[in-house]
Amino acid sequence: MSKPIYDRVALIGLGLIASSMFWAMKRAGLAGEVTGYARSQATRDTAREIGLCDRVCDSAAEAAQGADLVVLCVPVGAMGPVMKEIAPMLKPGATVSDVGSVKRHVIDAVQPHIPDGVHFVPAHPLAGTEHSGPEAGFAELYDNRWCLLVPVEGSDPAAVAALRALWEGMGANVEEMDADHHDLVLSVTSHTPHLIAYTMVGVADDLRRVTDSEVIKYSAAGFRDFTRIAASDPTMWRDVFLTNKDATLEILGRFTEELFALQRAIRTGDGDMLHDYFTRTRAIRRGIIEAGQDTDAPDFGRGHGK
Ligand code: NAP
User: What is the pLDDT of residue 286?
Assistant: First the structure.
């Protein structure tokens, strides 16, 4: 057990990410008391039933009152309004952080509401599953995954160091990154791949109407992996695309060019081009496994069933 890094932590929003944070903080004794708030009564009831948070509050302001660290764990589009609501309750010296998948938009929406004397240190854990809600979380989610801290201009070094220690205590490897660079990198590694998965499953769904249930019945590994990604939370992903518009459009443009090049190679029978291309992409997969970011198990390394 570590010594608590914060006496009081408030989690605003109690879904996959917040609940995993709670269990990971408890596992390592990183927080004295953890309060939590979710907007729906149903989620608050579930949280109370499963012991998620030491105290579940009926308003975000109540959960945030007196906290040393407040973490906004709501969809990206809800960050600004939630921050506005809790701002008057924050104690001087407290730190506000978030876990949003897009950083420039969150900074622009949240920072104007940060009161004087309160620190703001945005963050993004690069870990998740296609499951959502308070029961989806588990203590190991962040083990050996990256968490990117995106300090804003003038961020207090001590506040950044404490948040880094918290994420490291929850099992993550921590690095700092600039917000715009973050949004571009994540567009390549996460956002655009999700959009492509949504599209491919949508195409198959259209086709199903033609081929009856064959698409599901003979679902092969490639398609099944797309369906797992395309099962991700619709609200979260709507907000990601609406708030990371420029980077997504930039990467989609490049994707379309590559797709046309492959299409031409197929039409002209350019097997060398296809073989070289697939050899290059195979090396990337090997690199990810060697970096410990996935296993080469055929189930995408999700053997724990989450
Ligand atoms: P989640 O499981 O769907 O939980 C979202 C939580 O936010 C729920 O407690 C929900 O309350 C609350 N909420 C939703 N809309 C709200 C609104 N308009 N105002 C106030 N509260 C609202 O989501 P999650 O996967 O934990 O994601 C939370 C954040 O983490 C998002 O910003 C996402 O971009 C980021 N993130 C997600 C992943 C991932 O893979 N899932 C990975 C890294 C970062 P109710 O339950 O009462 O509706």
Answer: 87
Considering the domain delimited by 6-177, tell me its CATH architecture.
Answer: 3-Layer(aba) Sandwich (3.40)
Strand order in the sheet with 69-72: 55-56, 31-37, 6-12, 69-72, 95-98, 119-120
Domain boundaries, the chain: 6-177, 181-268
Domains 6-177 and 181-268 share a fold: no
CATH superfamily, with its number, for domain 181-268: 6-phosphogluconate dehydrogenase C-terminal like domain (1.10.3660.10)
pTM of the model: 0.92
Atom of ligand 1 nearest to the CA of 14: 9
Residues flanking ligand 1, CB < 6 Å? 13-18, 38-40, 43, 73-76, 78, 82, 99-101, 124-125, 128, 132-133, 233, 236
Q: Which two tokens stand for residue 295?
A: 């296993």
- Judged on CB neighbours under 10 Å (0-12, 13-18, 19+), 215 is buried
Buried b (16+ CB within 10 A) or exposed e, 239-273: bbbebbeebbeebeeeeeeeeeeeeebeeeeeeee
Would the pLDDT of 1 be above 70? no
Closest to 191 (Cα-Cα) out of 136, 246, 258, 261: 246
Pairing of strands 123-125, 119-120: unpaired
